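Sanity check record (used in CI):
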Amino acid sequence: MKLVKRRAVVAVRMVGAIAIAGPALLLGACQTRTPETRAQQLARICADPSSLRPDSFYFGECVAYKNPTANQRRQIYLNTAPES
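Expected output for Entry exclusion lipoprotein TrbK:
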């Protein structure tokens, strides 16, 4: 009787392990695309002209990423400077 009970416990543990590991392995196999680096993400985001508007969420990052010229920095300052 003890042997039957022990086999049942082992079987339940194996089923539990497979139930947990199976989906994890399948999910890992589905994610084959390599993640983008931050520079690649910013290149894609900053290519959109709306990201370069001062009220955009990505405005600061895009300005830093694009490394603006002196004239562009002046224009950015004039567009974003607080009014006195």
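The chain has a mean pLDDT of 76. If this sentence no longer matches the regenerated tokens, the check is flagged for review.
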